[in-house]
Amino acid sequence: MSATNREIVRSPDGTSIGYETVGVGDGLLVLGGAWRTSRDYLPFAHALAESFAVHVIDRRGRGRSGPQGPAYAIERELEDVAAVQAHTQARLIFGHSYGGLIALEAARRATEFTDIVVYEPGVSIAGSIPLGWIPRYREMLARGDRRGAFAAMVRSAGGAPAALERAPLWYVKLMLRLFIRDPHWQKIEPLLETALPEHAQVGALDEPTPDRYRDITARVALLGGAKSRPRFTTTLFDQLSASIPNVTTELIKGLGHTAPDEDAPDIVAERLRHHLQNHVRSRPLG
Q1: 20 burial class (0-12, 13-18, 19+ CB within 10 angstroms)?
Q2: By CB count within 10 A, which of 95, 197, 203, 265 is most buried?
Q3: What is the pTM of this model?
């Protein structure tokens, strides 16, 4: 396994942003989803280490990075990405879920990136990502029912099995306690508060169409799992493909939303490598 190098940069507002680097080659930034830290993506990074210098960023509120801060907005995330990009000179980005939304927003506002690969990006179009769970989630967090808040999100966020979506909250909470044991919960629990402002940004960027991505000049690859719901994959990809000028899509058989960080990092890494290597090799020198 490749050695890991840890570094910290300062974002324009002074927040420390930590990232871990593995591998050698063209620089690739990795942006993870909600309830995830850079540690969750290290298996994915190591699977790419022979092809790329992979910089896995701890987004605000995670790991060695500073807090989200009272002025949190996706603009702060974009400033953080720009700070790491300036330090690493990376020109490639991979984003998963909310990290995919950040990657696409970075691509439309900056020209430093040549290629963007996103896995089921957290782009909401005309309410396609359910956010009605947020008020109850916030209320349950405030009264200290942290497991209950997480259960309320899981039941109503659009990715749970249909039977779980119809079940009473007490039952969903019980099932999650059985399946999410303490070691896994200890990774999720510190990130419960960060999920609120992040999902608020998903809602703030929701528009009837994804026309704002028409200005992206980078090549974009949209990846998703065949086990995920169409609203997060094929339906979304069709809508994004109608706006993004240079885009390819791929639905990977047998995978779901957590493939990059939990279930199949090697498979997602192989598909990312497939989409990137020909472009990187054919890029003019100088």
Answers
A1: buried
A2: 95
A3: 0.94
